[in-house]
Amino acid sequence: MVLWGLAESISSLPEDARVVHMVPQISLRKLKSLVKQCPSLERLILPPSHYERLISKCHLDFLQAQGVEVSYGYWNYREALTMPPGAQYKEKQTFYRNLTPSALARLNKLRSFGFEEMTLLERYLCVNGGRKISFLKLAKQVGMSEGHLSILLNALLLYLGAPPELAGMSYPVEARARGIDGTAQRLEMELKDASTRSEFEKYKPLPPNLPPYSWDRFRRLSEMEYEMPEKFRELKEANPKQYWSLIYNLGLNETYKTLENIGEELGVTKERVRQLRNEALEILGIFAEELETQRSEGE
């Protein structure tokens, strides 16, 4: 039986643990203690920040001599582990640049619904030119946690038909991909029936030019603003730029504005507006709520 362990305290790990996700700073002494505590250890998983910066050749040689495989990834909710998009980077670039007709149709459908997260995958894979950007830097730029961005990018690849092993297959990734597919299908039906707009307008009318993919987020925030106005007041007082980036880009004041328009008003770049808006969504718990909803829809 494979047991997952968070090695915050090596002495607390079960002796029969075969797979361990190690969080603290790496040292040869800690690795020796880990192997001694878990003699059945087969695989050690490290966060990317540790794997890329802190683990040395000496550490790798020691683990190899002990028969322990080393990889990197993020620890997510439940038993799942999501590998970061950096794994098999060139293969993912090749897949995206050679999408099948059915995958292109899916891609264009997301774009028609205003699913701007698609641009994050394109930026990361440099499919439209531009300089290569590291995964950790992209997460920081767009104001998303590394775990959330990892699940999102891998889920998009899976949604477009990438092989599971290429998309860093895990429970959260599979559920998110199914959630994206379900949302796209639901939006397609809702756009054919204008009466469904009323489902999103319980507290406020939808701005006429708000992209369809933002409707559900608009509904969640409208409800939160109505039931918990103090959260919005606190956000406005703590960081006005985060607040207005969110309000304008989601049309919560009945006027939808693009990232470019908001950037011109606030005197910042389009990407800075995206980052500010996403930071506000993280603070208000919307990203976590969406992940849980899509996980449920994907079951």
- The number of E-state strands comes to 6
What percentage of the residues does DSSP assign to strands (E)?
5-15%
Helix content: 55-70%
Number of helices: 15
Main sheet characteristics: 4 strands, parallel
Averaging pLDDT over every residue, what do you get?
A: 78
Count of domain modules: 3
Measured distance between first and last alpha carbons: 24 Å
Order of helices and strands: EEHEHHEEEHHHHHHHHHHHH
- Main-sheet strand order equals 1-2-3-4
For the CA atoms, what is the radius of gyration?
Answer: 21 Å
Question: Which class do the helix and strand fractions yield?
Answer: alpha/beta
**Overall 3D form:** globular
Unreliable spans: 1-8, 76-85
Q: What would you note in describing this structure?
A:
- This protein has helices at 28-37, 48-53, 57-65, 89-97, 101-112, 118-125, 135-142, 146-159, 171-192, 215-227, 229-238, 240-249, 259-266, 270-283, 286-298; strands at residues 4-6, 19-21, 43-46, 69-72, 74-75, 81-82.
- It is α/β, with parallel strands linked by helices.
- It has 3 domains: 4-72, Rossmann fold (3-Layer(aba) Sandwich); 89-188, no CATH class; 197-287, no CATH class.
- The strands form 2 sheets. A 4-stranded parallel beta sheet has the order 1-2-3-4.
- Helix 8 crosses helix 9, helix 10 packs across helix 11 and helix 11 (229-238) crosses helix 12.
- The longest helix has 22 residues, at 171-192.
